[in-house]
Amino acid sequence: MMDQPFFSVVIPAYNRAGLLPSTISSVQNQAFQNWELWVVDDGSTDDTRQVVEEIARADARIHYVFQVNAERSAARNNGARNSKGRYICFLDSDDYYLPDHLQKLFNLLSEQDFPDALVFTHCYYLRGSEREAQVITEMGSDPIDFFLRNSIIPARVCVSASIFQVFQFRTDIVIVEDTVLWCTIATRYPIIQLKARTVLYHLHDDNSVDIAKNCFLPRLKGLRKLFSQPDMLDKVNPALKRHLISDSYFGIARHHHLMGRFFPTVWFVLRSILVDPVSSTTKKKIYLLYDFIKSKRWAV
After folding, report:
1. I want to staple 40 with a disulfide (CB 3.0 to 4.6 A). Which of 46, 79, 125, 220 is the partner?
2. Would you say 38 and 89 are in contact if contact means Cβ atoms under 8 Å apart?
3. What is the pairing mode between strands 35-42 and 96-97?
4. Please, which pLDDT band fits residue 25 given cuts at 50, 70 and 90?
């Protein structure tokens, strides 16, 4: 086993020189030590290269790769292509593994006779120095439905390397690129839930889900691309599909509301309601319009 790393960990990084030492350290501090680590620098302009290469000089299991900026999906795919492990794990540059993360994954995979599968764990939310335990929800018999209702960050996922030769992150999708991949894998391979919190998910102002940055627009585009995939056409409950599209429209409306834009707010709220008129959030959407009109806070 020692001739080949069992786990390959892939970290995409863009201008995260200040955060990477702690993230890398969380891999080095694993109880299970048969791993390699690929840090894929997605065109950073800070000291990312120097920071990673200095750490790598003291630990031969750590590798640095530079690519011209192409976003995190391309970076993860790049790291996976270079990897030699039997299973591939992902870790964002601002998140951390708890010391037993890889050991618990190995134990479960060993019990299951090392399947070609996707395994996901659970996490703690880290806000500053405060740690909050994520509620562990049972996946049930429909993993695609579960993935669409529950955001599974890449740090929680472990995928057989053989699967990644078939499916990779779609580089034309952002925000929901991870959900799209998990759902696509679930159309062909087993999904295994490890009911243990083994990851620290760092919540901060630079997280990609940000209303001010209109994050629901790329989410909407990504979901539409997922739903149009031939292998997904009959896999998603129509009511859930309507709910997700409607929720994305409402997220876009909230962005324009925050920016004080009256007509786009009205337009996307109405589209949200028309897509899913029986939604439990319809009253909330109508109230957003009422409050906006009453307050007269929109831009002239």
Report:
1. 79
2. no
3. unpaired
4. very high
